[in-house]
Recover the amino acids of this structure.
């Protein structure tokens, strides 16, 4: 048996006036996905436990089959695992975004224009973070470059009690209302303030501004946590597998669970990612003998954060055409029965430009048990609501692997 989970990050949305009361999933050209949905189980699932922030860390742990209330120790340590950072038991990892701040005057009076510094390329992001390490790192604190705008800070004998705000939750808002809080948080604030003075006139950023691109003119520190410990995916579900993803968070979850994490050329985590390479990578993993592949595609989420409705709709067309269709074609001819689960990790409503906790739709196809065709079924929020409902992503995962 082969198992495929495809996660179009944040693709679920809310009905929009601009779409005459429909959602991006309702209008996206997904002929291959919706053809499978017609003969599949279509329902909805609550991926975010009550009282938990609807972050991609909790949501993807949930969809992959782990209770985030038990296993989530913070977002950044999962990313640090993927980045190859050797954390000790006393280390605390912090996600360190390169962000775009806009305005004049004191740091606290600036606004967060862009949580991703215009999806800054990894090569440029590395230059900026390496300078931050040179100027602000050393002693108990060090900075490590990651992918695009996503980087890490490791604090030896660090603390986790700070109140730190994800920058994608406060777009267009005043920085001073969301600075770090808690005992000792002034040190984190100092690093952020000083980074702005270091980065605002850096040649990389001046070139970006001259091209009409958002600069990475400040770091923003959040998502703290200690070294994670996940149970073995093989021991839990009896399958050996891989994750195919651009972002370190997803690769880190996979590595912590004993899965392989395939490197994908041209994977950026944006609408400009190499969709075809993700499909090829997934097929190669199946051909190598893997039972299970978890494909994560960040593009719909990034478009949602940017308020890019057209891009979000287009991202789903590309996922359908360039990832789902070729991988499904392989599964149909691989000589084994197979199961497919399509589910976003959470919603990223385009109008609010951040995550939300509502249930998301899912499609579950079992090649050994196709359901009678129904034109009422599709991969969409409304189609999922009348169907089966799971109160956690890990309950759906258990259903998928064992049901």
């Amino acid at each position: 048996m082969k198992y495929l989970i495809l996660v179009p990050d944040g693709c679920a949305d809310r009905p929009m006036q601009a779409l005459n009361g429909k959602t991006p999933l309702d209008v996206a050209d997904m002929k291959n996905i919706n053809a499978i949905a017609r003969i599949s189980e279509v329902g909805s699932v609550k991926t975010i436990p009550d009282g938990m922030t609807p972050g991609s860390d909790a949501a993807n742990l949930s969809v992959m089959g782990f209770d985030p209330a038990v296993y989530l120790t913070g977002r950044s340590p999962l990313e640090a695992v993927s980045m190859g950072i050797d954390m000790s038991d006393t280390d605390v990892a912090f996600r360190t975004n390169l962000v775009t701040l806009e305005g004049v005057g004191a740091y606290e009076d600036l606004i967060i224009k862009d949580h991703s510094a215009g999806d800054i390329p990894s090569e440029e992001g590395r230059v900026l973070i390496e300078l931050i390490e040179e100027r602000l790192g050393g002693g108990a604190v060090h900075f490590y470059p990651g992918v695009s705008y996503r980087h890490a800070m490791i604090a030896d004998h660090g603390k986790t009690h700070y109140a730190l705000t994800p920058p994608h939750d406060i777009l267009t808002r005043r920085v001073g209302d969301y600075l770090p809080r808690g005992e000792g948080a002034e040190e984190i604030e100092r690093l952020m303030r000083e980074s702005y003075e270091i980065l605002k006139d850096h040649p990389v950023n001046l070139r970006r501004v001259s091209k009409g691109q958002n600069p990475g003119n400040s770091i923003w520190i959040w998502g703290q946590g200690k070294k994670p410990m996940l149970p073995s995916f093989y021991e839990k579900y009896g399958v050996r597998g891989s994750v195919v993803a651009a972002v370190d968070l997803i690769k880190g979850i996979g590595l912590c669970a004993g899965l392989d994490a395939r490197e994908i050329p041209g994977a950026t985590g944006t609408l400009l990612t190499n969709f075809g390479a993700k499909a090829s990578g997934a097929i190669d993993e199946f051909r190598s003998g893997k039972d299970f592949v978890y494909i994560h595609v960040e593009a719909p989420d990034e478009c949602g954060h940017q308020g890019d409705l057209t891009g979000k709709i287009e991202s789903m067309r590309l996922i359908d055409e360039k990832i789902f269709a070729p991988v499904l074609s392989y599964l149909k001819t691989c000589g084994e029965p197979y199961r497919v689960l399509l589910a976003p990790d959470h919603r990223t409503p385009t109008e609010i430009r951040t995550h939300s906790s509502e249930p998301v739709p899912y499609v579950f196809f079992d090649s050994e048990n196709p359901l009678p065709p129904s034109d009422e079924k599709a991969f969409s929020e409304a189609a999922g609501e009348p169907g089966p409902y799971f109160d956690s992503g890990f309950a759906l995962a258990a259903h998928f692997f064992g049901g």
About this structure: The chain has a mean pLDDT of 96. Residues 2-72+229-402 form a domain with the Alkaline Phosphatase, subunit A fold (CATH 3.40.720.10). The chain is about 35% helix and 20% strand. Residues 90 and 157 are 5 Å apart (CA to CA).
